[in-house]
Design brief:
35% of the residues lie in helices and 8% in strands. It is mainly alpha-helical. It has one domain. It has a two-stranded antiparallel ribbon with strand order 1-2. Strands 3-4 form a two-stranded antiparallel sheet. Strand 1 and strand 2 form a beta hairpin.
């Protein structure tokens, strides 16, 4: 399993409304991060603060400037430390990574998915809820 290369596939796929935030996150944003909270509407995330319309992508997803035309795009998150729990916990399962064409997966992981899951669990241990099993 490779380290994340910031391909952005997960953010692009799920940032269009497939994410949710916990009520605790929303409450904290309201108090401490009003610049994030302004994109919340009726306890749902990623709405245009001016029009109230649901956004088709995460407003906090950015692309780093390329150093050369041949370089792959690298995506960034401007709220990384305060991102929703859904984002922090991804990826969680090897089949999910395969479905999403996650670039962390290597051929050996496809050949031994159970071992790959163990590697992923170790890699993500600090990102997962303590009750994850």
């Amino acid at each position: 399993m490779k380290a994340c290369n910031q391909c952005g596939k997960c953010c692009i796929k799920y940032g269009d409304g497939a994410l949710s935030a916990t009520q605790d996150e929303i409450d904290l944003w309201e108090i401490f991060n009003p610049e994030i909270f302004e994109y919340v509407k009726n306890d749902d995330i990623w709405f245009d603060p001016n029009s109230g319309e649901k956004l088709t992508s995460c407003p906090f997803l950015g692309i780093e400037p390329k150093k050369s035309a041949s370089e792959k795009s690298k995506y960034t998150c401007s709220i990384y430390l305060d991102r929703p729990e859904d984002c922090r916990h991804y990826p969680s399962l090897i089949p999910e990574m395969i479905r999403d064409e996650c670039e962390m997966i290597e051929i050996i992981d496809l050949q031994s998915p159970k071992q790959a899951q163990v590697k992923l669990d170790v890699l993500m241990k600090d990102s997962r809820h303590r009750n994850y099993s």
